[in-house]
Amino acid sequence: MRRFIADANIGMRILVGDRDIAAAETPEKAEMLRAMYEDTRALLTQVSDGKVTLYFPDAVVEEMIFVLSKVYNLDREYISRKILTLLEADNIESTDTIRRALSQYATTNLDIVDIKLGVLSKELGSPVLTWDKGFSKLNFEYYSPRDIIDTEDPEEES
Amino acid sequence: MVPFQVALKENTLMMTKYETGRLSAKGVVAIPKNVRNILGIGEGDKLEFEQVTLRELLGIKEVDQPALDQILEQLIDEIVVVRGVKKKSVWDAFGSLDIDFTRPLVDVRDVRDQYREGLIADDLHRQDD
């Protein structure tokens, strides 16, 4: 089995399929989009046949979230569900961290990077160090630099 | 993994215990049929394990009583939630995005600068709150 790292355009094309071809401004553009669609379909045949594995790094998933949220104004629950459907498919790989963060993304209004910090904090058993007060909305341990300057071990203080 | 099925009988909390066979050296274990049914899983599906605190399991954020608060936090080593994850195909995701496109899909490279600016703007906005 061959393994490839997919970028955000690959991920977006998988989710969009051929839905944007009718919106092409010119016949040439439509032809180009159709070729990309056919290539993606052929790629996914190899994925579903177990010949190819696609790995989506966290940064790529974060970029896909940004495009769906800011460019297409889709709501968080929808974005979370669609990307998770992709990431949970057979022969598609991603980190547990980003999948957990995506699940939480549907139910908070925080940025995916902050949510991921919270998930990582639990996985690693280490508090987050930040000046950001927005972290109070998440259920995990965090400190400001002043907290750890003033005390030897912030965990003993709490 | 020994899951429990919890039920109330005559106002008493009852738990049904299902034990698996022995774990192999490779960590393989047969999951009893009853448990497979409860989790709604079959051949090819996956299990997802998540270590949680009692606080998270019950959806409780803060408790006024410090002793109870401590108990909620301390039981993290005791609770592992198991979920059945149905096998999914990449075809379930293909073309699943229901958007009325007025223009072709954007090239992500073209919006990267906007992405970075957006992250900074969100961060500043949150710090203002």
Main sheet characteristics of chain A: 3 strands, parallel
Query: Which oligomerization state do the chains in this entry correspond to?
Result: heterodimer
Low-confidence stretches of chain B: none
- Gyration radius of chain B, in Å: 23 Å
Distance between the termini of chain A: 49 Å
| Average pLDDT over all residues of chain A | 90
Number of helices of chain B: 4
Summarize model confidence as the mean pLDDT of chain B: 76
The H/E string of chain A reads EHHEHHEHHEEHH
- Catalogue the unreliable spans of chain A: none
Name the helicity range of chain B: 25-40%
Short description:
The complex is a heterodimer of chains A (158) and B (129). Chain A has helices at 8-16, 27-48, 58-71, 76-87, 96-105, 112-124, 145-150, 154-157; strands at residues 2-5, 52-55, 92-93, 128-129, 142-143.
Describe the structure.
The complex is a heterodimer of chains A (158) and B (129). Chain A is mainly alpha-helical. Chain A has one domain. Chain A is built from 8 helices and 5 strands. The model of chain A has no long low-confidence stretch (mean pLDDT 90). Chain B has 129 residues and is α+β, with helices and mostly antiparallel strands. Chain B has a domain at 40-128. Chain B is 29% helix and 19% strand. Chain B has helices spanning 33-39, 54-58, 66-74, 112-128, and strands spanning 4-9, 12-17, 46-51, 80-85. In chain B, strand 1 (4-9) and strand 2 form a beta hairpin. The model of chain B has no long low-confidence stretch (mean pLDDT 76). At the A-B interface, helix 1, helix 2, helix 3 and helix 4 of A face helix 4 of B.
